[in-house]
Amino acid sequence: MELRTLRYFVAVAEELHFGRAAARLHMSQPPLSRAIKQLEAEAGALLLIRSPAGVTLTPVGTVLLDEARALLDHADRVGARVTAAAHTTTLTVGILGDGTDPGASRLAAAYRRKHPGIDIRVRDTDLADPTCGLRAGLVDVALTRAPFDETALTVRTLRSDPVGVVLRADDPLAGRGRLRLTELSDRRWFQFPDGTDGAWQSYWNGGRTREGPVVRAVQECLQAVLWNGTIGLAPLGHDLPPELAVVPLTDMAPSRVVAAWNEGDSNPLIRSFVEIATVAYAR
Asked: Which of 106, 192, 212, 242 is most exposed by smallest CB count within 10 Å?
């Protein structure tokens, strides 16, 4: 059994759905289905029960899932040790957003447990570069939010968060239970600097061209709302000063927390980071 095929099986077994597993693995569904059928042929037993609602594990599949996880974990540790022996003992992580996110805290703790000898360097980046310096070679992997131009990058979604509009607490709209983007069309929105990724700027502008003050950091966004009555969007669930309020938007696509790295980068420390992040953010 090849490690790659076992990774495919683990993804299907954890997602319990071929479509979601294919998206997680960044591949189409037909080759994934063929790989699982080949694995069942090699095992000499049915591993999954397929149905229109998804899949369930057979008793044999449950045993293989436990063994595959252990084997892949061992393979990752071997890769990390080999990398360390080759003096690649540093992983630089770019972070954009709220570093107090429980998912990020769980990720940090789990990664330290698995790779205690790796020096983790964190680069906190501003809102002008959602890739956190990946394209400039400043980081190995980014923990950030989409959307942005994914050309030459590999991106895995870790979680999707609903989005709301940030207002002054005394704004007439602050007491509403929910809002639509059309109700904010006459407001000034904060903007990112010239040259910022177009998809990124468009998303945080609600898909339209807006006008407003230029900001580079989260605190600058909050201050623009507080001092100027500017509005902006933010994922729900983050603490705000009492002078500010956030109202959910009913017609805004969720904000995706993602891990991103350069396409083709085979560094096992990055692969391990992404796998641990997937579990950490799924809770």
From this structure: 242
Q: What pLDDT is attached to residue 277?
A: 95
User: Residue 251 CA to chain centroid, in angstroms?
Assistant: 21
pLDDT digits (tens, 9 = 90+) for 111-168: 999 998 888 999 988 899 999 999 888 999 999 999 999 999 999 999 999 999 999 9
pTM above 0.90, yes or no: no
Q: Give the pLDDT band (50/70/90) at residue 87.
A: low
Report the alpha-carbon distance of residue 112 to residue 94 in Å, rounded. 16
